[in-house]
Amino acid sequence: MKLQIDNLDGLGMRDYTAMIDAANTPRITRKLNQPSELRFSLLLGTDLVVPHRGSRVILGRTNGYDVFTGYVIADPEYEALGWGQQGPMYRFNLVARSDDALLDEKRLPARSPFVARSAGDALRQLTEDLMPGAFDTNAVQDLDVLPEYVPDPQLSWSKHAAAIATRARASFRMMDGKLIFSAAGATSYPLNESDPTFSPQGFSLQPVNSVINDATVAGDIEPQAYVRDYFVGDGLTTRFYLSQIPFIEYSKIIFADEYASATLDSNRWSAADPAGMLSVTGGKLQVAGGNGSDGATTVNFVEKIELGGSWILQHGDVEFKGPSVGVLGGLYLGPVLQANCLAGFQITPSGATSQIQALVNGAPTGTAMATVAGHHYALATRIYSQEIYRQQQTFHSAAFPAGSGFGGAQVSSNVRLVLEVHDVDPTNPATMVAPSTVLYDGVIAAAPAFCAYSLVNSPGLQCAIAFTRLIQAPGTEVRSAPSGQSFRTRLVGPLSSGGECNIYSGPSLAFFSQYVPALNEVIEVHYRGHGRAMARVTNPSSITSEQRGIDDGVKAAVRHLKEPPARTSADCENAAMVILSDGATAGCTGKYQTWSDFLPGGAQDIFPGDGLAVNAPSRCAVFQAIVKEVAIAVKDFSGEHCLYDIQFEREVSGELAFGFDSQIIRTFETNSLLMTAFMDLPEIQNTQVGATTLSSLTSAAVTRVDSTTVSIDVGIPPPTGGGFEVRWSDFGWGQNNSQTLAGRFTTQTFTLPRLGKAQDYFLRQYDGSTPAKYSRCSAALHIDRPY
Q1: Of the candidates 395, 344, 18, 448, which has an alpha carbon nearest to the alpha carbon of residue 215?
Q2: Is 94 within 8 Å of 104 (Cβ atoms)?
Q3: Which of 425, 422, 348, 431 is nearest to 378 (CA)?
Q4: CATH number at residue 744
Q5: One domain, residues 447 and 348
Q6: Domain termination site, one of 453, 473, 493
Q7: CB-count burial class (<10 Å; 0-12, 13-18, 19+) for 95
Q8: What's the Cα-to-Cα distance from 353 to each of 349, 427, 436, rounded to whole Å?
Q9: How many CB atoms lie within 10 A of CB 372?
Q10: Residue of 593, 513, 565 whose CA lies nearest to 150
């Protein structure tokens, strides 16, 4: 074998093989989804170059195959050994880390979360962000799509790579400048006791009592009840108190681009500019025209936009420099072409100026607004979705490997889109707080889950854009209707952004003084409540098979899931199902020690993440395993003999695809609330996952209120053999519980008693099955109005 080191002194690689300390031969440690490490010692006299931090190290065989490549991570440790013929002698102890050490020394740029990207694509992007073109990423497989991944700059590249690998049940490694990312077990070798090179002495197994047939999974705080709060104005009151804390209570800026640099930020935008019409000067994105073609000159956001929850896309303060043609702030389904535009602002010439009109489903809609020379126009799109998340998380196990995970379904939802323009005259300060003009306010039924966002689609735009922001807004939609009139959307946000009201802690809805609701004006506030995501799933066949004597066979486990995040109870249910798919079989860990000449299956090398087909019937061991760790001790340099210590785990180990939080759940929930959640948690069987709940009553609404009664329309006809259950509180659902029951109804509309000025009603639908299926989440209707 050969040890080569480049001290980056311009002399290139030098052979240090002869200087290796025979008493401390090199040792390589490889761990699953962690950087590899090489420890070695050199015996050098004073006349030889001592490797230093940053030196390039390659340890390989004479046939050109490398077993380690990386960089010295710290200056060597000196040990004085005495005097030699040429002077003092020292032992230098060094530690090198694999090529990803370079990436771990860099700080990730601030970028928006990855949305609907494959695991491999996200990993490639993180690598390119840190060191563009430095590593070969051709061996990075795509694998499953991640609904969302947040690249936190506080974490190193390898921490992100490990988290992404866990979510995809994959493994990564760096070798000789090449990043390899593939499914766990994609490369597998036979470990067969009948093989003549098999080492019985080097093979050991340790059983693990890991059977799980009753899994309770606790996830994140999730959106729960579909809440509608009803108030009525008196012409004076500006503040109204909400019945629940909204799931998303505060605004969060996902990105804000002020165009302060000389070029577009490549971590945020992808530009196509064949005619050279785009530039960034004076703190603005300048658009000086296009080549006349739809979709040719564009500025596109690098991530998709998820049409879930509440978002405000502030496309910018736009100043038009002349008659313009194009689309600003477009959401697209497919290629950036006007015909594919779900919603955006169409700009067309109007004499010496331009006009702005809503563009919906590829067609201009509503009244056009004429622009005025010198004015600025703040364009914004507001998104209000019934569902916070539009795609479920994907989970993996031995039964659901990478590329074939369980879950990941898209969630259907109606989405309200509001397109507004705030016209500001720089010479008139009053226009700074004037209301925005709404060009479009409508609902897209069964809207797509994701779409592309293009800030600029310019066949011929002449404009300057001062900023662009993506804001995750409080998940609150406010609508009001003066007496005898239709409802309209009230714009939520700061007064300076054209808002009419805002959400504050308490929680409360406060209207600005200019927009106080009139006498008898009805106010509706729509949002989602919140609670802990949880699910419990059992495996009856496993429970039966595990029954012995006084043991009823139940092998239960409660897991608080950290990776992948379980954002909803449906995710928890899917995760529990996947945990049970592995948990039905007892686990096992093992070790195998052998020489490099006799690796399993004649392999040239073994890496963590590789599979082992263990076949040792004499030890009752026939199973598939995944290598977790490999330690390589170089024992004979000239003969190239290395001793391999291979640690593996039966592939049913949950740790291959899950990260569990060992901490007890401690959040804003009181102990009583958390215990109530555990007690009310329904138990379902693994064969019932995904089929035990009905759709929630997302359209349930109050239609009439008087001093003693409230009329409700649930929005859909009753299910066959079932109806609608109404309760005074959001717990105790079921046919056998009469506590808190307000009534059960088999018609779409019904009337309930009103017991006070402020009153709550909670609704779920149920069917005629035994036991009856119910909606997963309640519709919560709250009224607070005088008698």
Answers
A1: 395
A2: no
A3: 422
A4: 2.60.40.10
A5: yes
A6: 473
A7: middle
A8: 6, 19, 20
A9: 12
A10: 565
Nearest to 590 by CA among 617, 623, 618: 623
Q: Give residue-wise pLDDT tens across range 112-160.
A: 999 999 999 999 999 999 999 999 999 999 999 999 999 999 999 999 9
Instruction: State phi, psi for 614 to the nearest 5 degrees.
Output: -75, 125
117 phi/psi in degrees, rounded to 5: -105, 150
The answer to whether residue 292 is domain-embedded is: yes
Cβ atoms of residues 101 and 154 within 8 Å = no
Tally of domains in the chain? 5
Distances (CA, A) of 110 to 114, 151, 255, 563: 12, 8, 9, 22
State the residue for tokens 């702030």: 329
Pair 365, 438: CB distance under 8 Å: no
Verify that 256 and 360 share a domain, yes or no: yes
Selection from 363, 357, 397 nearest residue 377 by Cα: 357
CA distance 142 to 119: 6
Closest CA to 152 of 121, 113, 115: 113
Question: How high does pLDDT run on average in the chain?
Answer: 93
Same domain, yes or no: 165 and 260: no
Task: Determine whether 28 is exposed, middle or buried from the number of CB atoms within 10 Å of its CB (0-12, 13-18, 19+).
Answer: buried
Residue recorded with tokens 């035994």: 770
Inter-helix orientation angle 119-130/157-168, to 10°: 170
Is 161 a member of any domain?
A: yes
> What pTM was computed for the model?
0.92
Tokens representing 70 are 């990386």
Nearest to 694 by CA among 771, 765, 761: 765
Residues 720 and 775 both lie in one domain: yes
Residue 122 is encoded by which pair of tokens?
């996200």
Q: Output the domain CATH number for residue 78.
A: 2.30.300.10
Domain residue limits at 633: 188-210+586-656
65-102 pLDDT, tens digit per residue, is 999 999 999 999 888 777 766 667 778 999 999 999 99
Calpha distance 96→6 (Å, rounded): 13
**Cα gap 455→715, rounded to integer Å:** 37
Residue 631 within any structural domain of the chain = yes
Residue pair 72/55 in contact (Cβ under 8 Å)? The answer is: yes
